[in-house]
Fold these 2 entries.
Entry 1:
Amino acid sequence: MSQLNSLLKNAKLALSDAQTALDNLTDSAIDLTTPTIRLGVTGLARSGKTVFISALVHNLIAGGRLPLLEVAGTGRLARACLQPQPDDNVPRFNYEQHIDTLTKERLWPQSTHQISELRLTIEYESATFLSKHLGGGKLHLDIVDYPGEWLLDLALLRQDFRRFSAEALKRAKARPDLSADFLKTLTRYQDSLHEEFSEQIAKELATTFTTYLSRCREEENALSMLPPGRFLMPGDMKGTPALTFAPLDLGSIHTKPKTGTLLAMMERRYEAYRKHIVRPFFKNHFAKLDRQIVLVDALTAINAGPEALDDLSNALSEILGAFRPGKSSWLFSILSRKIDRILFAATKADHLRRKDHDHLEILLKQLVEKAINRAEFSGASVETLALASVRATRQATVHHNGAETPALLGTPMPDETIADIRFDGQEEAAIFPGDLPDDLSTLFSANQETEASEDQTILKYVRFRPPKLERTAEGLTLSLPHIRLDSALEFLLGDKLA
């Protein structure tokens, strides 16, 4: 019987792969008329996905501030315009509202907690002699925005309930300050695992587990490895049985649970989560991407301390492990679509002095070093970059008592504080944020002294309001300012706009 079940399972997987290949074949047939690139944009909490997409589209439509995007820098970019997206069953990315929030209210838009999509059509003049004389080029850019927490869930496809429970409890026990209530609840019901299922117990376990995950994500902790991702972003799945389970302590339990018990139902709901939430996301969205950018809020992790940085490194390695990287020939991409370019981008570079931008990029490269090596070995092009999707500060020099001090000039968000100063959100301020250390290894727990040295620089990152849009002498309003957004676009799209 077990052999028959295995054969049936393999047959279902083969059928699913065949359907995905057929979908890719259909997409490729459409691409023969107008090429399409599906760009995945993801990142963990506070990484700035919404701002990145809004700034990307705004700058391409306005046609300015992109000198390092070769097609724009050489004057070959004719125009870019929004078009109806191809997937009618996916929410549209609310570009217009987000731009109004950024430029008119000068506030940061609310984060999105679901998948969304936007199509941008780019018209350009080809750089090749033959294409130039055959007419203008056109590219559909389909931007797929999804939470990074969902990407971490793909690892669950490789984990049964026992392994998921073991890894989740290992992380929870490492932070008893955050997980005490959940662990106490788990201990209280340990003897009930083989008793008849109780919905009340299941809800209590799921609630305390979700509360623990929420505490982990708070800015002062900034932990990233928090699967299952939908527990923190349930959307329309909130309250469903597929989200009403929790990891259990199965160390001494090796027998198959009896049907109808608490243990059996928790295992069943975990499998339902994988079947009805994780697998559809992989099949319907993730498996159809061509290029990917992963936005990383390394500064918040630095503020939270070495443990948060170590956890972020593990999360990024897990994220890259979810990709199926590799360079694909045209024919091979039809049969098995693969992401062939992945960009890891450390956001909020405008919160640092210019000299620290390179340090931030080096730090990011260290965070994903093992994962990058794994991806490059299999053929994908992987890069790291420090950027600011919207530059909210300017570099400045403050003169005080005959001394010059480098600083950042911008308008802090309302109620931001430094020492005993509270900002009102209206006046500009010159702020020195501190420096990243030359030896970045000191930021990680493995190289952290038990007590910080007295001369160690304390970093303080203040949130700034989006800037006022600048105007030219002729009265034209310029696009949103940024740091290296054009470099990111050149890596992700440059070869398709040649």
Note: The longest strand covers residues 116-124.
Entry 2:
Amino acid sequence: MAIKLFDSELKVMDVLWKEGDRTAKQISDLLKAEIGWNMNTTYTVIKKCIAKGAIERREPNFLCHALIPKEAVQEAETDELIGKLFDGSADKLFAALLGRKKLSAQQIARLKQIVGELDEVEQ
């Protein structure tokens, strides 16, 4: 079963996914600069992530290590979105995304490549 992370927890995880292991203080400093969080807010969110098993606390210096990869969270969130808003249909999500904005020729080519790779795997 996937770990459900809230937006605030994803902000902390995103620091670890981008920067690698960091101390709670370093995470706090980064999030203060990025979004204005104070230290208490950041530490509270880090502790919630630890309680959920998303982060491991290591010593010395309250070093935080991500226990779950970003891809696992993306997959779980995508599955939830598809199930909740698109009747479990990935093609309905895909159609909704394509209908929302103009795509560049490069983006369209990349999507065709992804679909082609999926097609190859299926055969």
Note: The mean pLDDT is 91.
